[in-house]
Every structure is written in C-alpha cells, then in structure tokens.
C-alpha cells in the first residue's frame, strides 16, 4: 500500500560535502585542478593516438576509447559538483538527475567491459605476436567494442527506468551526484526489488569482467613463462602492468560501493569511495598509461619536436 502523508518531490537537493565557506572554496579549487588534469590528460591521450600513425595499433585503439570514456563519465559528475561548491542553490531537477544517472551508469559499465576487452588484446599480443595484426584487425577491434556498449546500455536503462518509476518523498540526496543507491534511499515506495537488481547486476557484470580478465591473464602468464629471454619477459610484463593497475583500481573501488551490505559504510565513507572512481580514476588512467609507457612518451616527444621545428624555421 502507498504511504499516506507523503509530499511528492519534483527536484532534489545535493548535499555534497559539508563544511565552512572557506573549505568549500578550497575543495572547489582542488577538484577544479583535478578536473583540468583529467580533461587535458584524457583529451591529450585521445588526440595523440589519433594524430600519431605509429600509435594506430589495436592496443592504442582501446586506450583511446578508454580515454574517451573517462573523459565523458568524469564530465557527467564533476561540473555539477564544482558548481555546487560555489553556489547556494544545490538543486537538481528529476529530469536532470535521471540524465546524469543514465550517462554515468552507461559509461561506468562500458569502461568495465572495455578493460576486459583490453585484457584479451594483451593476451593475443603476447601469446600470438606473429598473428596479432591478423587476429586483432580493425573489424575485430570494433566488434570488441560491442559488449562494452551493450553492457552500458543495459546498465543505464535498467537502473534509470526502475529508479525513476519510484515515488520520492524526500528531497535531500546525501551525495554529490545522483548515484543510484543515494536516490533510491529517498523513495517512500518499496525499494527491495531495486536494491536486489542493483546488487545482482553490479555483481554479475563486474564478476563477468573480472573472470574474463583473470582467464586472459592466466594465459598471458603462461605465455610469458615460455619466453626464454629475461628481457623479453620483462617487456611482456611491462605491457601488462599498466592495464592491471587500471583494472585493480577501477574494480576494487566499484565493488566497495555497489557490491556490499547496504549499511556497511557510513555516508561519508561512501562519498570518499565515490569521489575516487568518479573524479580520481579518470585523472589517473592517462597518467598511468603515459608515465609507464615508452611508446607514448616517444610519441609526445615527436609531437613536441614537430611543433618546435616550424617555429625555429620561421
């Protein structure tokens, strides 16, 4: 039965992070710098891969899409969070909240499956280097983008539709963006099905990605052990280490948020973990892949030299 004395809500208020006006300004400056690094890093990585023909390989095809996904899902959350730091009105309409939730759910799920596709790419590169260009053709790479996009659409449509069919009686979201659990908690409807679907989908989609990645790396490590030279083994491990780093940070953080007992975290802890995967991870990924990748470093140097040469000649 529907609850009585329930005032329907047509907009939400994002409580964000409590603190004095000075603290809010400091947080605004800090996260603005982080977001600027995220934009420059991911767009720069994407642009670098497009303009340097030496990076037109399957590995960098996936890396360019990873940068694009990071850029998009960070931009879904961070600008609104930055605005809320410096304005008194922290309201967001139901339609804008639903839009934010849809795009965020799409890009997060899509990135998880993209990381799994990148694991398969590394497996083919190490276990079948002579057939790599044939097995990972342009068509094969595009086909490997289908599961990420499908997972993203399924995740976004399911949670957004189910969440915004609920009746909301509370307006204050104890979060800095329209995250699914935070919005569901405001409903005066029965939310047990929503919570169950959220847990099952997060666990299933995440587990499928992790199982696929683990199987890929079992085969990768077996292939590396067959390499006779120590230098060859080190090079193979080096090409995988950046991907493993990105995978570990991404999935550990997401599982801590979505695959856990609903009351195991305080609200503040949930916000900190959410900050990590919404704001920090998109900034870290291009840094991880550029700092630890010699080909990317060489490409940056070539681009810088090309820019300097015309200025010197003129």
Report on this model:
With 314 residues, the chain is mostly helical. It contains eleven helices and three strands. It has helices at 21-51, 58-86, 94-127, 132-135, 138-143, 146-163, 180-184, 192-225, 230-258, 267-291, 294-313, and strands at 11-14, 91-93, 172-173. It has a three-stranded mixed sheet. Helix 1 packs antiparallel against helix 2 and helix 6 (146-163) runs antiparallel to helix 8 (192-225). The longest helix has 34 residues, at 94-127. The N and C termini lie far apart (78 Å). The relative contact order is 0.14.
Please work out how many helical segments DSSP would assign.
11
Radius of gyration: 22 Å
Mean pLDDT: 84
Shape: globular
Strands side by side in the biggest sheet: 2-1-3
Tell me roughly what share of residues is in helical segments: over 70%
Alpha-carbon distance between the two ends? 78 Å
SS class: mainly alpha
Strand content: under 5%
């Amino acid at each position: 039965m529907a609850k009585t004395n329930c005032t329907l809500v047509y907009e939400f208020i994002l409580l964000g992070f409590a603190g004095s006006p000075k603290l809010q300004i400091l947080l605004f400056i800090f996260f603005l710098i982080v977001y600027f690094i995220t934009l420059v890093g991911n767009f720069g990585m994407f642009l670098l891969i497009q303009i340097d023909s030496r990076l037109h390989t399957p590995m960098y095809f996936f890396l360019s899409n990873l940068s694009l996904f990071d850029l998009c899902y960070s931009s879904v959350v961070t600008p609104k969070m930055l605005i809320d730091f410096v304005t008194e009105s922290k309201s967001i309409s139901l339609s804008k909240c639903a839009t934010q939730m849809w795009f965020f759910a799409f890009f997060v799920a899509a990135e998880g499956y993209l990381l799994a596709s990148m694991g398969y790419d590394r497996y083919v590169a190490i276990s079948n280097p002579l057939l790599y260009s044939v097995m990972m053709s342009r068509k094969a790479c595009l086909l490997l983008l289908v599961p990420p996009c499908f997972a993203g659409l399924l995740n976004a449509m399911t949670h957004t539709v189910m969440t915004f069919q609920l009746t909301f009686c509370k307006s204050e979201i104890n979060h800095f963006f329209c995250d699914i659990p935070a919005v569901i908690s405001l409903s005066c409807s029965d939310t047990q099905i929503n919570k169950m679907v959220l847990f099952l989908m997060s666990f299933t989609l995440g587990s499928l990605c992790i199982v696929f990645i683990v199987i890929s790396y079992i085969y990768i490590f077996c292939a590396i052990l067959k390499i006779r030279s120590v230098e060859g083994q080190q090079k193979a491990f080096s090409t995988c280490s950046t991907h493993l780093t990105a995978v570990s940070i991404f999935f550990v953080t997401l599982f801590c948020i979505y695959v856990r007992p609903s009351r195991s975290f305080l609200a503040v802890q949930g916000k900190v973990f959410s900050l990590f995967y919404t704001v920090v991870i998109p900034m870290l990924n291009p840094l991880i892949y550029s700092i630890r990748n010699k080909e990317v470093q060489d490409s940056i140097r070539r681009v810088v030299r090309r820019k300097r040469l015309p200025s010197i000649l003129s």
